[in-house]
Structures are given as C-alpha cells and as structure tokens.
Amino acid sequence: MIVAFDIIILVFLVIAAIISLSVKDLLAAAMVFGIYGFLICLLWAEMGAVDVAFTEATVGAGVSTVLIVATILNTRRKSTD
Amino acid sequence: METFFKEAVVPHFNFWIYVIIMMIGLWSVIAKNNLIKKLIGLSIFQTAILLLYVSLGVKEGATIPIIDHHAAELSLAGDAAAINPDAIANPVPHVLMLTAIVVGVATLGVALALCQVIYKDFGTLEEDEVLQKIKALHDDV
Amino acid sequence: MKAKIFASIAVAITGAVLLYAVTDFPNFGDPRSPANAGVEGGSPSASLYYIENTYRDTKVPNLVTAILADYRGYDTLFETVVIFTAGMAIFAILRVLRNENAPSAPSPDPEASNRTIDGDHHRIIVGITCRIAVPLVQIFALYVVAHGHHSPGGGFQGGVMLGASFILIALSGSLRDALARFSEASYIRLASIGILIYAGVAFLPLVFGRNFVDYGALKGLLGTDGEEMARSHGIFGVELGVAFTVMSIMFAIFANLSTRGRLKGGL
Amino acid sequence: MILTILSVILIVSGLVFFFGAAVGLMRFPDFYSRMHAAGKGDTLSTLLVISGFALYQFRDIHDFSHDWPVLLVVLKLLAIVVFIYLTSPTSTSALADAGWEDGIDPVIEPGRENHLEDDCHRTPPSSPQP
Description:
The structure holds 4 protein chains of 4 kinds. Chain A is mainly alpha-helical. Chain A has helices spanning 3-22, 26-47, 50-74. Chain A has a domain at 24-75.
C-alpha cells in the first residue's frame, strides 16, 4: 500500500467514471469503461489483493467490455444523454 | 475545519472517494435515460462496493496473501511465530469479492440480454420512449 | 428534467449519510482494525485463524485459493451455480430455436466466405496472429488453473481466460469457427459437468462418514500420506469444476449476445 | 554493479521512448500518425523496460544451483516481451484498418494525392439492421 499511488489512481478512477457516463457515443462509453476496469485492477494489485486484480483484469477489462460492445452493435450506438 | 480535515478526511480519504464513485453510479441509475448507460452506472456502483470491502482488509506494510516458502516450512516444523499475521493482507474480503466479480459479469450478461429483447420489441433503448410505447400498448386494449 | 432534480436530491442525501458514517470507520490500512484483528476483549478475527493455520491444514500457500475452495467451499459451490443459472437465463431469454428464414437458408450466404480469414483480405494479419496467440492463451489459462495453489490464480481466473480465448477466435475469425471448436451442445454439457465435478468432490466425504466439503476424508481414496495433501487435491478438483463452468458460460453469454440468440453470422 | 547500471540505462531509455509516444499521441494531426506514434513507441519502450527488469533480476543470481527460481522469473519476463511483440503491432494494424473502414481520411499535404484510395477499397458502411 503506497498512499501517493493510491490517490493518483483514485482520482483517475473518478474521471474515468464521469467520462464513461457523459459521452453520447455508447461505443466510446464502453471503451472508457474498459479503462475504468484496468484502473480498478491496478488499485487492487496495489492494495495486495493479487487474486482479485487478476480476476478484474480478465473480467472487467476483457469480457465485460466485449459483452457491452456486442450488445451495442446489435442495438443502437447513439444515446440521447 | 483543520481538525475536521485531519481527523475525518485524511485517514479515510479512500472511503470518501468510494462514496463519490458510488454516488456517480447511483445518480446515473436514476437519472440517465439510456438503458446501457444505466447498466454501466450499475457496474460502477458495484465496483465501489467491491472496493470498500477489499480496502477493509488492507494492512499497512503488509504483503500479498501468499505464504513464503521458508515461513511455511518453519510453521510446519512447529514455529508458531514464523507467520506474522500483521505482515499478510486479510484474505477473507479477497475471497468474497473474487466470486462477486465473476457473478457480476454473468448478471451483466443477463441484463444486456434483456436490453436486446427490449430493443427487439420496442425499437429503442431510451427509457422514456419505451415507457410511452408501453402506455400506448395499454391504451389500445 | 424532473428525474434529474429528484436524482440529485436523493443522491445528495444518500451521500451525506454515507459520508457521515465514514468517519466512524477504522483508519485505512490499520492492522488492528476489527476486520483484521477482531474486537478488543472479544474473540479474535477469523482471518487470523486462516492466516496462521491454512498452510498447516491444507498445504496450500495461496490463502485465497484455500479459503475459496476449502473453508468456504459451500459458498463457492452456489456462486458457481449462480453463474450457471445466469447462462441458462440468457439461453431462455435470447436463444431463437426456430429457423426464421428456413426456405432460403440452404443457399450459402455470399458474405460468409468474406468472414473467414482466407476470404477476407483485411483479416489476414489479425487472423494469423490470433491463430498463434490462442494456443498460448489456453496453455497459460490451464497453468493458471493448475498452479493456483502456489501463485495468484485459480478456477475463476483460468475459466474466464479459457472462455476469452474462444471469444478471441470468434472475434478474429467468425463465430462459426468458434462454434466448430466448441459447439452449443458441448458448452451446455461442459457447464453441467463442471457443476457435477464440484458437487461430486464435495459430496464424496459424505460417503466416508464425514461432513460435506471435508476433503480430508478422501485420504484413503487418493492414496496420499496425510489429510493435508488430500485437502490440497480436493481443492484442485473443485477448481477444475469451477473452471469448466465459468469457461462454458462466458462463451455462451458472448455467443448469444453477439448474434441475438441465432448463433449465426455474428459481429 | 555493471548489471544495475545497464538495467537502469535500459529502463530510462524505455521511459524516454514512452514519453515520445505520449507526445506524439497528443501532437500529431490525424488518426493514422497518432496510431503510428502509439504503436511504435509503445512496442519498443515495452521491450526496453522489460528487458531492463530482466537484467535487474540477474543481480540476484550468486549460486546457480540455489538461485535457479530467479531464472524462471527472467524467462517469464522474456515471454511477456515476445507476446507483446506479437500482439501490439497487430492491434495497431487492426485499429488503423478499422479507422479506414469507418471513413477517417488521413491529413495530406495540399498538392499531394491520396494513394491509399487506389490500394485499399472501402467496403460500404453496413448499417445494423433492427
């Protein structure tokens, strides 16, 4: 646990969450959500939870982004807000 | 003000940020109009809770919860002090959250499948349009 | 607009209550907090027992794997069942079983040859690289499952990686390639087999007159020289079952979502 | 000592290339040159940084028969390098290809013609059917 590293990642985390909820292009939102997953993975590796970080790297940044993209390509890409 | 900052904010800064992330997720679940946006907000809400749990098990100066080879041999030989619990992170929150992540992505898949069915039936994923169409459906009958 | 104002008020009230509660939390990184060391004057925390005795009980250095599959094995069994149920729910919601345009189906789709690596000029680079990468990913995933006792990893991580390797085949080539290697019948079968492996390994100790998920009773069956090694092998069997189920369900979710339940065409 | 200095040199030069890639990503005018900067800089700097780590690990080998687990760490690091060399250029190529299919035109100096149109024909954008 390194406090400075912790603060930097947490600030980026808030920024990524706000961006992924405010862009109107859903494909971009899915990609920023993948970045959010990677940041969470870094945060967990830094906290000493290596198993959880490993799971998040495969699930959060890999599979869940792919699932959201698959749904967006089968429905509509633009959102009104 | 300064004492409040020193006593309430500094030792709990990460909990404050988790609450902020959680509020972002909650706000998007209530206020966003697009269903996929709502799902992304729900996932962000979920990660805030996972972060809260895992950070409860953090110990200052501790390493990862995998026992060193030498310490393991010593503890088998009967040396009770070989493994120092304060130097190893608390593994219980990790176990609980590890399964929660994988269950979370499976349930996200179910939610996305429901979104696709809604799109097939109503031709849109915007909440207000879907509600209008459901209302029109009831008015016809 | 009304929804946004209401949402802002609700979120502000919730956030204020939570931030007020946060001040009562133990400090971040405190090794003496109740979650880490138990209540002072009361009983010590369960995590202290796990840290001190897990290696002696199970001979598994990775505490997370040992607790996941042994001490909390009953919990993990039903987490796996939840994942299986999610896969079946997607099958029930999305899967289209009747053939919608059956009369015109036999004529081959002109775009179909364009979707494979050999037909589509644009997919050569990605396709060939993925052909090289997929076996490496799968070998690494099996390593993660099998080596979860000594390093980070285990059934969930390895299973998700195995599922992701099949998703990679579907994305780089076509879904038909992936389904030729891992068809719908086989992934549903394998998901059930995974649950059965887990439940079977957990049930076996009952035969020997011991408790559910008490793998130490398998000592005689496995021929190990102590109950600890029997528990270690029991953990491995459980992880294998978890890996099978998670792999199958991850690929099932992707295959159904990307084709709207038709399992034809794809992205 | 020599190994430490060598590894520090490798890591620092890798960071310099990373910095170049980041500056290129911010400053270049269009999508394709940005992809170029990111792909090239990323691949080379990852190689340099990770081989620096591998060299740094070699410091711990004093007695080979006892310290052979360190060699496994070095082999794992080198495997990461090989894998990144395989996948990073591929992903850059796939992204540039997707950008071309999506209709992004490169910024070309006025007076020159765009030869890309002759070599690669664009498939018409397919609209997702409801």
